[in-house]
Specification:
The chain is an all-alpha fold. Strand 1 and strand 2 form a beta hairpin.
Length: 344
């Protein structure tokens, strides 16, 4: 009798298992990488100011650093209401919302690189907006992002790009890296349900195309400056975000990146913008997936794990440890798939 009951129980459990949804564990979980990320995020949490912000070297780029650290913590799976870094994320959201100006700028007008912070803030807040459960808070974020999108549209140059400040304040100057932050921020907003004019994105795509040389390298600016691997990787990531995966243009850009970044060039090779370059290139390869992603990810993770400082984080003499640690933590967590803007 007991044996029969056991058999019936097993049959019943099997039937239930078939009807339940399958929730896979994060792909290729690596305990060593997870430990490095947690130690580094804990280190970043310890650096947060009472007002909710983080800063780069010499107290610079408070808005940009806050948005980047917040994004790295969201990538871990924490939200404003749950998880190890929920309090830090809430404080970061509070700070960035307080930085929203009547004209829509998120940041300091006297910061001569304010478009970086504006773009990163749109990306971070849009990811929070998608998960926010408090109705009043959600409405506040929506209003700030709606104004931010309009500011971004007004700041776009006549050529379709962006500069360090708005087109009006910067004499219509534009350059690649700020353009990429705006495109990703706008796409993140649009994905979250914030209205974004298709024309703004289309003009930005034309700008990127006109900055691209015949060999696939993207120049510093539409005015010239020579093709640069970091800008090319960032531009390609932005084109992917804009839905351009397999066009003639993106194929040329991919070929250029393969020759100058990886796999033709060793991942261990460094330059002054190595982390910036791989921050964006990792997004491209992750979206590509397959064996290419697996090989690249393993090489990238190995290098980053080896170079982490004792106590967490990574050193950077240029912008600072907050900046480079945020980028590295986002790269190391792409496989977790918590952030819609980076998902396949």
């Amino acid at each position: 009798m007991l044996s029969r009951i056991k058999r019936l129980t097993l049959v019943l459990l099997a039937a239930i298992a078939v009807t339940l949804p399958f929730w896979p564990r994060p792909c290729c979980a690596d305990e060593k990488v997870d430990a490095v990320v947690r130690q580094s995020l804990d280190y970043l949490a310890s650096l947060q100011k009472r007002q909710g912000y983080w800063e780069a070297n010499q107290g610079q780029y408070k808005v940009a650093m806050t948005a980047l650290v917040g994004t790295a913590m969201l990538a871990e799976g924490s939200t404003t209401t749950s998880g190890r870094y929920s309090k830090a994320i809430r404080l970061a959201v509070d700070y960035l919302l307080s930085m929203s100006r009547p004209n829509g700028l998120i940041g300091f007008r006297d910061d001569y690189h304010y478009t970086y912070g504006h773009g990163f803030s749109m990306l971070f807040l849009s990811q929070v907006y998608g998960e926010e459960e408090d109705e009043q808070r959600r409405e506040e974020i929506r209003e700030v992002l709606t104004l931010a999108v309009q500011f971004c549209a007004d700041a776009q140059t006549s050529k379709g790009g962006w500069g360090y400040v708005s087109a009006r304040e910067g004499s219509d100057f534009d350059e690649g890296s700020t353009c990429i932050t705006q495109v990703q921020g706008l796409r993140a907003c649009r994905n979250a349900g914030i209205p974004v004019s298709k024309e703004i994105i289309d003009r930005a795509k034309v700008y990127i195309e006109e900055c691209t040389d015949s060999d696939g390298g993207v120049q510093y600016s539409i005015r010239g400056g020579g093709a640069r691997p970091p800008i090319t990787a960032a531009a390609l990531a932005a084109m992917f975000n804009a839905g351009e995966y397999d066009t003639e243009l993106t194929k040329r850009m991919r070929d250029y990146c393969k020759r100058t970044i990886w796999p033709d060039k060793s991942i261990t090779s460094s330059n002054g913008h190595w982390h910036y370059m791989h921050f964006y290139f990792s997004q491209v390869v992750y979206r590509t997936g397959g064996d290419e992603w697996t090989k690249y990810r393993d090489e990238l993770n190995r290098k980053l794990v080896q170079e982490m400082q004792s106590g967490g984080g990574w050193a950077d003499p240029q912008v600072g440890t907050v900046y480079v640690t945020s980028l590295n933590c986002i790269m190391l967590q792409l496989d977790k798939g918590f952030l819609p803007i980076y998902q396949r």
